[in-house]
Amino acid sequence: MALTDQELIAGFINIIGQEHVITNSSDLEPYLIDWRKRYRGQAIAALRPASTEEVSAIVKLCAANQIAMVPQGGNTGMCGGATPNPTGRQVVISLQRMNKIRELDASNQTITVEAGVILQALQEAATAANRYFPLSLGAEGSCCIGGNLSTNAGGTSVVRYGNTRELCLGLEVVMPNGDILNSLRSLRKDNTGYNLRDLFIGAEGSLGIITAAVMKLFPVPVAQWTALVAVPSAEAAVELLNRFQAGASAQLTGFEMMSDESLALLKHYYPALASPLAGPNAYEVLVEISDYESEEHATQLMESILSGALESGCATDAAIASSLAQARKFWDMREHVPLAQADDGPNIKHDVSLPTSAIPTFVATCNEMLRKKYPGIRIINYGHLGDGNLHYNVAGPSSAETESFFVNRSKEIQALVYKEVEKLNGSISAEHGVGQQKVDYLKGHRGEVALNVMQAIKRALDPHNLMNPGKVVSL
């Protein structure tokens, strides 16, 4: 016979202590709503375990009583993947207290961390050991590595180092029945059967709860040079990317694009971060080169490529950062575009990826189609052009009108944008995940066979659908 809610709460208290079982409505509220305030649910409690063993005990108790579980890290997700549903028959399992760095092996260039370690803390631990951890996001001061793994986060350095999946060597996972899968091996080569690690990365807690991970570290670059470059079109931005890929190869670590409307929004809400380039420009591109040879070599490389780009016309203006402070300001520009959007009000977000060669066609087609159908809209288009990932976001004609515009037009605009993504063999989710926002689009995007395979995996590992139900794969 299943336990009552009060009996369950008593069981949770017995596992992790009363102060870490949150049931008071005001204290519970932050765990029930997503960062964008688009999704809100209810929960029996929010639970804050401090160890893998405590997570395992919680999961076993929930499994025995058919209580669904929603894992949560920094709660910075964009698609409602860490938000409970409205039924009130779920618990939120927050991993924030699991924030230990278990081991840093500088010689092996690995770091073993618990899921609740803040991304910035991981970066700082690597720096203290004279190593470099390249994953970098706008939310790095609050997002957790477990969440980064669960959505296979990308960020600004994917063009050189890859997504979070490529940075992970091993995982520790609590399975839906409470068993602990320990695959915390710090090996670059390990061909012993199925690659279980990749099954859980990007699964958003729907197959198990990631509690720890072994992540790769890298040598610290000798020099990093950053430039802000004006380009006259999306086609020119792709040509500039091709020039840097040919001239800098693996030394190209960042290539970010911001449209004129993105820059205008940034200037309005953060005037101190206005672009130093004369404008308006159709796009401005942020380029970073990391060099392991010398500062002189990095400087010559950056100047040589930019000189050719300016001469060809694919670049019309450029500013190379003359100091670390100026380089940081250039990056602050890019990272504050989504914050300016948040200040402006709700917007219709699209986190899409496309073959880089198809981006100009996608942008031109969508811009024309949406502007014709919805006069006055603002298209805030920016993102990681180096790896084909655009944040193609749509806002109402003004901040005062954006709320009603968002509510009334969201689904139809998403459908139009996703249709163009499909035509160009792109993806409807590049780095934000599926969560609950994109579940209904998954069958059309991945196809029936792929969805059937995913559902079969879900049923095999989580037959009672207790792990973050309603997210990623719907049963």
From TrEMBL:
GO terms for biological process: respiratory electron transport chain. Keywords: FAD, Flavoprotein. Belongs to the FAD-binding oxidoreductase/transferase type 4 family. Its cofactor is FAD. One of its GO terms (molecular function) is FAD binding. InterPro entries: FAD-bd_oxidored_4_C (IPR004113), FAD-bd_PCMH (IPR016166), FAD-bd_PCMH-like_sf (IPR036318), FAD-bd_PCMH_sub1 (IPR016167), FAD-bd_PCMH_sub2 (IPR016169), FAD-linked_Oxase-like_C (IPR016164), FAD-oxidored/transferase_4 (IPR051264), Oxid_FAD_bind_N (IPR006094). It comes from the Bacteria. This is FAD/FMN-containing dehydrogenase. Residues 39-220 form the FAD-binding PCMH-type domain.
